[in-house]
UniProtKB/TrEMBL annotation:
Protein name: RagB/SusD family nutrient uptake outer membrane protein
Organism listed in the record: Mangrovivirga cuniculi
CDD domains: SusD
Annotated ranges, domain SusD-like N-terminal: 25-224
Keyword Membrane: yes
Protein family (similarity comment): Belongs to the SusD family.
Length: 444
């Protein structure tokens, strides 16, 4: 993969499927036929293209993270752009720019992955090990994109629900409509892709590339959302105990990129930069931390050191502080989440206090004492502890919202209707399809 790493910085002009090109299509899942995978070089460029598409500003380039932070009231919009104001209010219309653009960007990844999965096995100049790594990366990327789509637009908490997501698996060379699946089928494809990724990807490596550890970590997350707690515990425990990941001794060191705590991160450079610092540290900041989120830290909690009062606003500094420097990576999966997954799975299977030791590991790293087990007498008590610790551990990483959504806490914490735990299907998609193929989520 060393050659591939060089390609990330040199092949941006010839990526097989440009996300920008796809924005001009009627549907997000088409590719031009003259940009097919025909040899090893174009196959490798297509794989690099998957990572490039994850850098999209609508996805891990900032917006997918900041959108959920706004909805969870960890962040607030301080200018008047409708897209941020709508997300911050929690009353998100189906024509919201982020909702529309991120849907397209996720499906751009899906279509690129489909092309790699179909075309690479047909090539004669690709070795067996290269084929395994290329297709393994594609299966991981498709699983990641489909899971993000499911937890943002589908009723992921109900395996019997008809409100899943479209699951295109063929290479689309012309605009087509893929009907919405049910939730069970969405989980089945996501898990199938992850099993293939686990089988084919290298055991370890630079966290800016997919590997077996990242695939197992994503599987742990998927199993938790699906409510399969034995499996969630198994995969989270395997990642913690049997891979070369370690928690950093100091919380602030996590964000120096490529540490032993990082499982999967999206790489940004001066050539391929993110919008994290631009949005928060621009000449006129657009998004900042809420006072509530900034002031929830105890004075000795090291996690609060990365939230500072700068220019009369609280701002998170984990991605840097220079609006013109967008090199800070996006941390998609890190080891701390595996501790929370293992903690939750244990508590749901064996009683509400059994997960506290893993939570206390993170608290100890932050400089805090343990949670008193006598204060946790029910799963509700445990869920309250878990949600609070997720908020403290992952500010500005797009994690806290999904704890509120998954644990059905929108009414309790944000005073919102439960249906708003997912986005509406984008208006653009409804306008170019029919109600039988892609239908709106309940409540919208």
């Amino acid at each position: 993969m060393k050659t591939m790493k060089k390609l990330i910085y040199t092949l941006t002009a010839i990526f097989t499927f440009s996300g920008c090109d796809l924005l001009d299509q009627e549907l997000p899942n088409t590719i031009p036929t003259d940009e097919a995978i025909v040899d090893r070089v174009s196959a490798e460029a297509a794989v690099v293209g998957l990572y490039n598409e994850m850098q999209d500003g609508s996805l891990y380039g900032s917006d997918a993270v900041y959108a959920t932070e706004l909805m969870a009231k960890n962040m607030k919009a301080v200018k008047f752009q409708a897209v941020w104001q709508e997300l911050g209010s929690g009353i998100v219309p189906s024509a919201n720019f982020h909702v529309e653009d991120s849907w397209i960007a996720w499906y751009s990844i899906v279509n690129n992955a489909n092309n790699i999965i179909v075309k690479v096995p047909e090539l004669n100049d690709v070795s067996e090990s290269e084929e395994a790594e290329f297709t393994g990366t594609a299966h991981f990327s498709r699983a990641l994109a489909h899971f993000e789509l499911l937890r943002q637009w589908g009723e992921y908490w109900d395996n019997t629900s008809e409100y899943g997501i479209p699951l295109p698996t063929e290479v689309a060379t012309a605009p087509i409509v893929t009907p919405r699946s049910n939730v069970a089928d969405a989980y089945a494809l996501i898990e199938s892709d992850l099993f293939k990724a686990i089988d084919r990807l290298p055991a370890s490596g630079d966290p800016i590339f997919a590997n077996k550890g990242a695939a197992e970590a994503l599987m742990a997350r998927v199993k938790l959302y699906k409510g399969e707690y034995d499996s969630a515990f198994y995969y989270a425990n395997d990642v913690i105990e049997n891979f070369d990941y370690d928690l950093q001794d100091d919380y602030v060191d996590i964000f120096s990129e490529g540490t032993s705590e990082s499982i999967f991160e999206v790489d940004f450079t001066q050539q391929d930069f993110s919008n994290y610092t631009f949005l928060m540290f621009g000449t006129e900041a657009e998004i900042v931390m809420t006072d509530e989120a900034a002031e929830m830290y105890q004075s000795n909690d090291e996690r609060g050191l990365l939230i500072e009062n700068i220019g009369n606003f609280f701002r998170c500094t984990k991605y840097g502080t220079n609006q013109d420097n967008g090199e800070g990576n996006a941390f998609v999966i890190r080891l701390a989440e595996m501790y929370l997954i293992r903690a939750e799975a244990a508590s749901r299977n064996n009683g509400p206090t059994t997960g506290l030791p893993d939570i206390n590991v993170l608290r100890a790293r932050a400089g805090l004492g343990p949670i008193d087990a006598s204060s946790v007498n029910s799963l509700q008590d445990f869920n309250d502890v878990l949600t609070r610790e997720a908020r403290l551990e992952f500010p500005a990483e797009g994690v806290y919202w999904y704890y509120l959504s998954r644990l059905d806490k929108l009414g309790e914490v944000l005073n919102r209707e439960a249906f708003r735990r997912i986005y509406p299907i984008p208006l653009r998609e409804l306008n170019i399809t029919d109600d039988q193929a892609i239908f709106q989520n309940p409540g919208y």
